[in-house]
Specification:
The complex is a heterodimer of chains A (156) and B (592). Chain A is of the alpha+beta class and 156 residues long. Chain A has helices at 2-12, 19-30, 35-45, 49-58, 78-82, 85-96, 139-155; strands at residues 70-75, 110-115, 127-129, 132-134. In chain B, strand 15 (559-560) and strand 16 form a beta hairpin. The longest helix of chain B has 18 residues, at 454-471. Classes of the chains: A alpha+beta (156), B alpha/beta (592). The structure holds flavin mononucleotide and FE2/S2 (inorganic) cluster.
Chain lengths: 156, 592
């Protein structure tokens, strides 16, 4: 881990205002931002940890906890809203057995995230499963996909 | 090139989602197939293009033979063989798959300036852009125009910012030009925060070089040596395309030192937005590039005087910048000939919601909403009635169906309590509840409020709570007046544009659909049948086939009945989730 972090620091050491970029690179590498990474950057760059946490918690893109192996992205933009994405979301939540305030399953297999307009409004509502686009999001299709991912995980 | 055959496959966001890549691959495979006469396959070029506009009918494919264009819709890979055999080899278009009727109506009233090359050229090829006149405006300005003359030209054109506020672009450039200092910056705002719109994404994916050309022009006019493109990380393809375009422009020495043979230096860097709506606001965007929490600050000082790292900074929206090369190429008079007295040129809209031809459109300012909805958009689905059109997203408002003849320009929309905004245009029909729509936007702004100022942070929260009460059947007399009062306070007391405009969706729905609010509050009814808490679900006995689908779907076990016999809902157990209504194939669940 340390060599990766060192690389990231090297890339930005000369740039001021690089906190956001450093965190973006870190998340690219680890899928989330580990606390150790922040401590390391803070020491190396002489920037208080609070700056990093402040930035990380401000932007919705940053995660301080690991996310699920599979990412389900529901578009909650306006077009998708009026086309009833809420119903799809509740169906997905039911299939994943997520409690209302949860977004990652207990086994860390799935994370459900919400974003605004993805640009596919003409086939709204839209849900992505690991980047694959499901338009006119028929809940059954997505639930089937989730189940097939589950099954192939089990077989491994 | 003249005799050649060109095949264009739409790979805009919706094109890719509908399987554009597979279609393009199939064309590639089929055309290299041995059985195709070499004389034809050699003449044939095929490439990807950005959004062609009519997203609802994707995958769209253009086949151009000797300059004659034929468009196909809903193309699937297994249709490619027939198109190649019958049309490209045989010269006989495959009639049943043609999009021409729809395409023609869709395009007839549009005027494409910003989108003129979008959906036509390969966005990943700088030569394709150059062959359509790209970068000629830069060739023209370096050597022929002084920065002041250039600014004068942009002022004459009447171009106003497309990012939402509509500030005159020439004036903004002039302020930055006159601002003291040797170091200046220009920023392209491609954060596109409106949650129901994708214009900037389509422009950058479909023609990234036009934005770069606009930035170079702006840099020369203002004296900026460095530019930033601030773009949403949620748009990976757009990020990829603009990156690639910058690299290609550097290779041509359009960016870097002594560009276009002048003594001027200019380069562009990309900064990724990290998912915060407020970062579309200028001062918050600057804070974000500086690596801080993206919180806005009070203005003045304005960014043109004190911006990025405290230096004079011009911020322009991506679509604004994409207009610039066209103005330089064709002249200010040509541009100001489009549009109305105070709103010049064209505007790109993402036309979505309950409309047949949803997609990306570009229209002259001053076109009526009726023309957009009925001619370009092809109207609503049969049996549905237009209720309202929402523009400007979370900062905007809605225009009721009765006002369909309103002109779409800055002044007319402002008069109606609405805004042109960045370009989201969402069509709502009789199935949409206006209180719910207002709640949707307020939920968005409330969660995106950065929390720096009290009126916005707490005011939007209180408004949202009130709207939630109303849609849950707990509204009280006086709520509407309270909402109006609180709206006025938030608008006048907030620090930045987010708070100052956040109440707009509520105010405009109250203005035009007060009766819907009243129905929720006094009658405890949702006329559109959207707010579940206000509905009663019942099973119509003589339609029920007893398939038991609803009983299985019901999470609270409120539905009982024997197989093949009519079922019934126990109202005391019903939690009004609507699951039974969703699953019933015989439409025997009624909500009212
Ligand atoms: C909350 C908020 C969000 C904004 N989001 C955007 C945006 O996503 N894109 C944009 O171009 N302008 C956005 N703006 C407007 C910008 O602050 C700014 O006016 C614009 O980028 C200036 O460019 P223009 O003059 O070319 O329109 C936003 C403003 C506010 C207050
Ligand atoms: S609103 Fe969901 S893709 Fe645009």
């Amino acid at each position: 881990m340390e060599s990766i972090l060192r690389d990231i620091v090297q890339r930005y050491i000369k740039e001021s205002g690089s906190v956001v970029s450093i965190l973006q690179d870190t998340q690219d590498r680890f899928g989330y931002i580990p606390h150790e990474a922040i401590s390391y950057f803070s020491n190396e760059l002489n920037i208080p940890e609070s700056r990093f946490f402040g930035v990380a918690t401000f932007y919705s893109q940053f995660y301080l906890k690991p996310r699920g192996k599979n990412i389900i992205t529901a578009c909650c933009g306006t077009a998708c809203h009026v086309r009833g994405v809420d119903k799809t979301v509740s169906a997905v939540k039911r299939a994943l057995e997520l409690r209302p305030d949860e977004d990652t399953t207990d086994d860390n297999q799935f994370t459900l995230e919400k974003v605004a307009c993805l640009g596919f409004c003409s086939i709204a509502p839209v849900v992505l499963v690991n980047g694959e686009v499901f338009g006119k999001a028929a809940a059954e299709k997505i639930v089937r996909k989730i189940n097939s991912i589950r099954k192939s995980e089990d077989e491994e | 090139m003249k005799n050649s055959i060109v095949i264009r496959v739409c790979m805009g966001p919706a094109g890719i989602a509908a399987g554009g890549r597979a279609v393009l691959d199939e064309f590639r495979k089929t055309l290299t197939d041995k059985k195709i006469p070499a004389e034809i396959s050699n003449r044939c070029t095929h490439h990807q293009v950005g959004c062609m506009g009519l997203c609802a009918r994707d995958v769209l494919v253009d086949v151009i033979i000797k300059g004659h264009k034929t468009s196909y819709e809903f193309v699937k890979p297994d249709m490619v063989r027939k198109i190649v055999d019958q049309h490209i080899i045989g010269g006989e278009p495959v009639k049943q798959w043609l999009a021409d009727g729809h395409m023609h109506k869709f395009l007839e009233k549009q005027v494409k300036v910003v989108l003129s090359d979008c959906g036509v050229i390969d966005p990943e090829d700088i030569e394709a852009y150059i062959s359509r006149g790209g970068y000629s405006s830069c060739e023209k300005i370096f050597g022929n125009f002084s920065p002041e003359e250039l600014i004068h030209e942009i002022k004459l054109s009447g171009l106003r910012g497309r990012g939402g506020a509509g500030f005159p672009t020439g004036l903004k450039w002039e302020l930055a030009r006159k601002s003291e200092g040797n170091t200046k910056y220009i920023i392209c705002n491609a954060d596109e925060g409106d949650p129901g719109a994708f214009m900037d994404r389509a422009v950058i994916e479909g023609n990234p070089h036009s934005v770069i050309e606009g930035m170079i022009t702006g840099a020369y006019a203002t004296g900026a040596q460095k530019g930033y493109v601030y773009i949403r990380a949620e748009y990976p393809l757009a990020v990829e395309r603009i990156k690639q375009a910058i690299t290609q422009a550097r290779e041509k020495n359009y960016l870097g030192k002594n560009i276009f043979g002048s003594s001027f230096n200019f380069d562009i860097e990309i900064k990724l937005g990290a998912g915060a709506f407020v970062c579309g606001e200028e001062t918050a965007l600057i804070a974000s590039i500086e690596g801080q929490r993206g919180m806005p600050r009070a203005k003045p000082p304005f960014p043109v005087h004190k911006g990025l790292w405290g230096k004079p900074t011009v911020i322009n929206n991506a679509e604004t910048l994409a207009n610039i090369p066209h103005i330089i190429r064709n002249g200010a008079a040509w541009f100001s000939g489009l549009g109305t007295e105070d709103s010049k040129g064209t505007k790109v809209f993402a036309l979505t919601g309950k409309i047949k031809n949803s997609g990306l459109i570009e229209v002259p300012m001053g076109i009526t909403l009726r023309e957009i909805i009925h001619d370009i958009g092809g109207g609503l689905e049969p049996g549905k009635h237009l209720k309202a059109v929402q523009t400007g997203g979370p900062s905007g408002g809605c225009i009721p169906a009765e006002m369909l003849d309103i002109k779409v320009d800055y002044e007319s929309l402002a008069k109606a309590g609405c805004i042109v905004g960045s370009g989201g245009m969402i069509v709502l029909d009789n199935d949409d509840c206006m209180v719910n729509i207002a709640k949707y936007f307020l939920n968005f702004t409330q969660s995106e409020s950065c929390g720096k100022c009290v009126p916005c942070r707490i005011g939007t929260k209180r408004m949202l709570e009130m709207l939630e009460r109303i849609t849950n059947g707990l509204g009280q007399p006086g709520d509407i007046e309270k909402l109006e009062q609180l709206s006025a306070d938030i608008k006048s007391g907030s620090l930045c544009g987010l708070g100052q405009t956040a109440p707009n969706p509520v105010l405009s729905t109250i203005k035009y659909f007060r009766d819907e609010y009243e129905a929720h509050i006094f009658d405890k009814k949702c006329p559109a049948g959207v707010c579940n808490s206000l509905l009663t679900f019942t099973i119509i006995e003589d339609r029920c086939k007893g398939c038991q689908a609803c009983a299985k779907a019901c999470p609270s076990k409120a539905i009982t009945g024997e197989k093949k016999k009519p079922h019934a809902i126990d109202q005391s157990l019903c939690i009004k989730c609507g699951a039974c209504f969703e699953v019933c194939k015989f439409r025997s669940v009624e909500k009212a």
